[in-house]
Each structure stands twice: as C-alpha cells, then as structure tokens.
C-alpha cells in the first residue's frame, strides 16, 4: 500500500514532466529578448507593480523613459524575498543595459548579482548599500524626512484639536525617517500639538490600518499621516466615513487623493518616477556616474508635497517658507 | 477496472488532480487573455532549460521538502502542525545568531549553526506539544499564535540585537555558509547548496523513523487510534511531545538551511514566509509519505520557480500558478477523482446485481 502510494506520486510527476517538455519544445524563447539599442529591466519587491507606492511610481518612471527615450523596458514582480536574485539574474543574462531593483530589500541581492555580471549596470532605490557601492551600481536614495517634515508642518497648522497621528508600517529605520521628519515638522509649526505614533508592523494589512486610524481619530486626532504602504488604504477607508473638512488624512509616496478626494489634506510625494527616469536617461546617454549614491531631496524635487492638495492658502504659505529654509540649510531635519 | 484502480491508489488520483489543476489554470489564462500554451511552455522550459534555472528550481524545492516532511510526520501522529512556519522562522533566527555572533572554523561553524537551528525549531514546537499532551489545548490554536510570536521575535532581534538598528543583518560569516563552490559552478551560479542533500537525508530519516523503528510504530499507532494505543501500553502524551519536537526540529532545520544557504542574511519581514503553509499542501499531495513529499515538492517547487519565468517570457501573472497550486490541492483534498470513480463502480455493481 505504502509503496503504491508513493509510486503513484512518482508516475504523476514524471508524466507532468514529460508533458511539459513536450510543450516546451515549440515555445518562442526569444520573446523576452526582443529589444532596441538600450534596454532596461525593473524588478519590484514583494509589493508588486500596483502597490500604489514606490514600485508603481518607479515603473511610471521607466515607462516614461520607454515613450520619451525609446528604450526597451521590461518589468518583473517578485513574489518572495528569495526571488530577487534569480529575477535580477534573468535580466542580466538577457544582457539588459540597466537593471533596477526597487526598494531597500534589494540591498543584499544587488551587490551579489552585480558581482557576477560586471558588464551590466544596476540601480537600487532606497538604499545606499551601507556605503559599499560596487563599481557597476548606482544607489538612489530620498530624503524622506524632508518631505515628511513639510507634511508635519501642514498637519500641525491644520489641526484644530492639536493632536495629530502617524501610522507607520514596520518599525524599521526606513520608516523611522518618516516619523522623525513628520514629528519635527509638527513641533516646529505648532509647539502645542502632540503626535501620536502607532505602527502596524505590516505593509499590507489594510484592515489593521483602518482600526489603527479609527483609534487615532477616536482618540482626538484630526490629521493622520501614514508611511505604511498598503496599510494606508485602511486609513483612507476610515477617514472617508467621517465628516469632511474636519478629519484629514495625508498620503505617502504617490498622490493618494483619489482614495478619499474630500479628505486628503495632501500627500508626501516621493518622486521615484523622477529618479528612475532621470537615471535611466543618464545611463542611456552614457553620463551616469556609477559606484555612487544619488540623493534626491526637496532641492531636486525628489520629495515634496503633492500639487493636488486641500491645504489652506495661509498654511501653504508657511509650508513654502519652511521648504525654503530647509533648502537653504537653515533647518536640518532629523532622520531618526 | 478503472473504478477499482481509482479506489485503490492515490496514483491516478494525484495525476488527474494535477492535470485538472493545470487545466483550470489554462482556463483562467484564456479568460484573462493569455496564451496558455506559451505560458506553460515558458514555465516548464525554465525548469529544465538552463543549468542555472534548474539550480534555482532545486533551491526552491529544498525548503518545501523539509516543510512537507515536518507536516507529514506530525500528521502521522494525528497532529496538525500548522506551526511549521514559526518553527522555520525560529530555526533561521537561531542559525543567523550562530552565523553572525560566533567565530568558529569553517565546517564546524556551519554544523553548529544547523544543529542550533534544529534545536530551536524543536523547542518552539515543544510548547504546543506540551500544552496538547498535558492540558489538551488544541495544537492548531497554539501553533498559530506561536507563528506570530516567532515572526515578531525575529524582527525584534534583527533590529535590536543582530544589527545596529537596521532592516536586515549583515551577511553571515563565510565559515557558516553551506553554499559550496562545486554545486554553484555545476549549476552556473544558481544558489543551490548543501541543504538539498540534507533534505534528501531528512526524507530518508523520516522514512526509517516512521516505518522501521519501534518509536515510529508508536507514533503511527497513536495517530491511528490514541485510545487503542494507550490501552496497548503506549504513552500517548510522550508520543505527542516527541512527534511535535521532531516535526519542529525538521522545520527549524529548514529555516537554518534557507538562512545559511539561500539568503545568508536575515531581514525584518512584514509577513510569515509561507513555506510552512506550502508544506501542508506538499504533505497532502504526497499522502504523508516521505517519498511522496519529495516528489510533490519537486512538482510545486518547479511550478513556483517556473512561474517566475512564465511571467518573464509570456507576461502571465504569477497568480496563475497560485490558481493551479490551489486547484490541485482542492482536487486532492476533496478526493474528487475517487468520488467519481466510486460512484461509477457502485453503479456498475448495481447493474450487475440487477441482471
């Protein structure tokens, strides 16, 4: 009986295998390699291409490069952390000229693959690889704290209850940057205001985001900012169920106002698309400096508040003033 | 005749389930406007395509074998170890600890890390085992809770102890790595490592343990009928605890192997890795036998790794593979093939009796 059982599985597997090889014969393997003179590969982290966040934004940038610069673009989603290396390798073997790894989660995979494929160029978003950047890699980082500071100023000046909230994704240094900048912004603009900070310990659990948002609003906060990826969708669901003009949410990464048009005060926009387009353009023109970190801040329009906002004109004026002060270096925004 | 075959073996049943699963996947692809032949071609082409593809497939298969064995072993004793996930995380954490914090000579370092990882997994599983044996608390509930404790403990340790407030640890010392040059070269740079060999050894171990030893006989007896086993003089409690610990040990080893071979670092994760849950499916399709587990791991590992290539070449979303995976499990679990077979043969018998 035992014997029969596993024999069963054996036959099953080998049959499928044979079937597969049969199918495999007539497939068009070159489909993936049809490309122009300059080709780009983009590998997302586990968030995927439609994460309403930096993966999506990064893809917008390279898609723009596809249209404007006529480069060939191919994007691949990763389903597990273990997929980063094989996905990058696939593009490298395909002899793509520039290969993007989107997100700090690539900070081990990019150096590993870059080491093996010296002739390919790689770029990573949101990590400086601890300063050890290989000679065929460019590290793209953002001053998230500067953008978050402005969001904090807007929140601090808009709040009526003098209580604002922050929902973080994972309590990790990457997200602490947002928290630190935001808190500093609120305090500078409105010393009386307090910031209540909560973490979802997830980047995808929208239900958790909603319950956290509910407890923040119920606890007296009237403006809540999030840096929590998919968790943030819960924040918008919650704020939509409340009185417009009284309760506000602040989005992150992209302009998120379409999630709750009447309730979105503004969004802290991280122009990953600007960065991916800019770097891709430089790579195509051959002017890209490798082995270094390129840092996008308020100065370079790499971060900032979305144009589409419900911030009142008086508040907006002060936000502008703070922005200029940061650019001039009169205010140094803390990052942790 | 076919009815008889169907009733008596999982052979046809598994096979038909797999084919049906792939058909459903093909229908899903057609409905969303993709070409299933190109997609499946890309999928299987990559499994056997190049040396590095094959290597990555083997790398994907490795943790599935461990996870499947872990679930299958507990299942034999009538326990549903849904905590493989957490035991795996703890095994990885323990191995990372050894790999980063200790300085030992090459081979020894890796062995210590593997052993510590295994023990950590076993201890993690001991808790639900003890609670089940002594207090009668259902292991599923405890295991699910333990999974989250494991995940957040690991996240905490990565941030506060194993790194200086960072999202991930440094790479482990090379002396603790179980990647070996000859395997890497053989598979053109793919991350195949000694874990594969350990997984095969683990399968042999589970087979010998379950079917060739007195302990294994007791474990299976308790699984089949606890009351009868108790009456026959076996200690049900003792067997439950032992089964959970061995199961957890295998899961812990899986975590250690993944860490020391595949990733070589540990990072903060927002969700559980999912390998343990896949292990449940692997054990189910493998009919809880070690050989079956190895084979079904090969199938699912191939599907998962090939799925990425399918996305790359044919542009079909990876989710299609999840559909295939889920439908295969559904067909196996619901025993649809056998049901149909039984009904047919019963009908025939009825006709014969009538005539």
From TrEMBL, chain A:
Region forming the signal peptide: 1-22
Domain of life: Bacteria
Keyword Lipoprotein on entry: yes
Pfam families on file: Bmp
Location of the protein in the cell: Cell membrane
Keyword Lipoprotein: yes
CDD domains in the cross-refs: PBP1_PrnA-like
Domain ABC transporter substrate-binding protein PnrA-like: residue ranges: 40-335
Main location group: membrane
Cellular component per GO, a single term: plasma membrane
Transmembrane segments: none
Membrane topology, from the record: Lipid-anchor
Alphabetic keyword roster: Cell membrane, Lipoprotein, Membrane, Signal
Assigned protein family: Belongs to the BMP lipoprotein family.
PANTHER family: ABC TRANSPORTER GUANOSINE-BINDING PROTEIN NUPN (PTHR34296:SF2), TRANSCRIPTIONAL ACTIVATOR PROTEIN MED (PTHR34296)
Protein name in the entry: Basic membrane protein A
Organism encoding this protein: Croceifilum oryzae
TrEMBL record, chain B:
Annotated compartments: Cell membrane
Keywords of the record: Cell membrane, Membrane, Sugar transport, Transmembrane, Transmembrane helix, Transport
Pfam families: BPD_transp_2
Topology versus the membrane: Multi-pass membrane protein
Superkingdom, natural source: Bacteria
GO-annotated cellular components: plasma membrane
Transmembrane residue ranges: 12-31, 61-79, 107-127, 139-158, 192-210, 240-260, 280-304, 316-337
InterPro entries named in the record: ABC_transp_permease
GO molecular function: transmembrane transporter activity
Record-given protein name: Simple sugar transport system permease protein
Species of provenance: Croceifilum oryzae
């Amino acid at each position: 009986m035992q014997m029969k059982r596993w024999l069963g599985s054996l036959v099953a597997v080998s049959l499928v295998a044979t079937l597969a090889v049969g199918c495999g014969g007539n497939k068009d393997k070159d489909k993936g390699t049809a490309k122009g003179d300059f080709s780009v590969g983009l590998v997302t982290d586990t968030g995927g291409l439609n994460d309403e966040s930096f993966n999506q934004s990064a893809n917008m940038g390279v898609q723009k490069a596809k249209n404007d610069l006529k480069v060939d673009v191919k994007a691949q989603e990763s389903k597990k952390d273990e997929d980063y290396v094989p996905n990058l390798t696939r593009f490298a073997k395909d002899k793509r000229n520039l290969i993007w790894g989107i997100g700090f989660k690539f900070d081990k995979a990019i150096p590993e693959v870059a080491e093996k494929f010296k002739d390919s160029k790689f770029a990573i978003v949101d990590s400086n690889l601890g300063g050890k950047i290989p000679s065929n890699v460019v590290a793209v980082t953002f001053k998230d704290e500067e953008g978050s500071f402005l969001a904090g100023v807007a929140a601090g000046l808009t709040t009526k209850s003098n209580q604002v909230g922050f929902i973080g994704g994972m309590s990790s240094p990457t997200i602490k940057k947002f928290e630190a900048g935001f808190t500093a912004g609120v305090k500078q603009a409105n010393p009386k205001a307090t910031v209540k900070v909560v973490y979802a310990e997830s980047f995808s659990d929208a239900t958790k985001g909603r319950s956290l948002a509910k407890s923040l609003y119920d606890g007296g906060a009237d403006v809540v900012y999030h840096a929590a990826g998919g968790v943030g969708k819960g924040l918008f669901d919650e704020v939509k169920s409340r009185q417009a003009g009284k309760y506000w949410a602040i989005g992150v990464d992209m302009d998120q106002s379409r999630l709750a048009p009447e309730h979105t005060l503004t969004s802290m926009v991280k122009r990953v698309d600007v960065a991916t387009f800019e770097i891709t353009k430089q790579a195509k023109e051959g002017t890209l400096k490798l082995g270094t970190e390129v840092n996008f801040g308020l100065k370079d329009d790499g971060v900032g508040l979305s144009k589409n906002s419900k911030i009142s004109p008086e508040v907006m004026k002060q936000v502008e003033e703070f922005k200029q002060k940061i650019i001039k270096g009169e205010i140094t925004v803390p990052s942790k | 005749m076919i009815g008889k075959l169907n009733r008596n073996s999982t052979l046809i049943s598994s096979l038909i389930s797999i084919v049906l699963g792939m058909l459903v996947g093909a229908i899903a692809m057609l409905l969303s406007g993709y070409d299933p032949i190109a997609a499946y071609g890309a999928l299987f082409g990559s499994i056997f395509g190049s040396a590095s593809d094959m290597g990555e497939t083997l790398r994907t298969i490795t943790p599935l074998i461990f996870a499947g064995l872990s679930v299958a072993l507990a299942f034999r004793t009538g326990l549903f170890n849904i905590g493989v996930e957490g035991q795996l995380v703890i095994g990885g954490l323990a191995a990372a600890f050894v790999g980063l914090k200790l300085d030992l000579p090459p081979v020894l370092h890796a062995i210590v890390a593997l052993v510590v990882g295994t023990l950590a997994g076993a201890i993690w599983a001991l808790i639900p085992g003890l609670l089940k044996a002594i207090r009668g608390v259902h292991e599923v509930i405890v295991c699910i809770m333990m999974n989250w404790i494991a995940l957040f403990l690991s996240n905490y340790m990565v941030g506060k102890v194993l790194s200086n407030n960072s999202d991930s640890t440094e790479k482990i010392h090379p002396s603790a790595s179980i990647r070996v040059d000859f395997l890497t070269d053989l598979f053109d740079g793919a991350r195949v490592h000694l874990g594969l060999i350990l997984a095969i050894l683990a399968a042999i171990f589970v087979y010998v343990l379950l079917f060739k030893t007195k302990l294994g006989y007791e474990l299976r007896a308790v699984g089949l009928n606890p009351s009868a086993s108790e009456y026959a003089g076996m200690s049900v409690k003792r067997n439950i605890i032992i089964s959970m610990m061995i199961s957890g040990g295998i899961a812990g080893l899986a975590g250690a192997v993944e860490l020391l071979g595949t990733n070589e670092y540990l990072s903060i994760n927002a969700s559980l890795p999912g390998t343990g849950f896949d292990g449940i499916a692997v054990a189910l399709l493998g009919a809880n036998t070690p050989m079956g587990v190895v084979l079904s791991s090969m199938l699912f590992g191939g599907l998962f790794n090939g799925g990425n290539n399918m996305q790359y070449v044919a542009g079909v979303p990876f989710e299609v593979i999840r559909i295939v995976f889920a439908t295969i499990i559904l067909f196996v679990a619901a025993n649809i093939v056998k049901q149909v077979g039984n009904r047919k043969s019963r009908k025939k018998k009825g006709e014969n009796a009538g005539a």
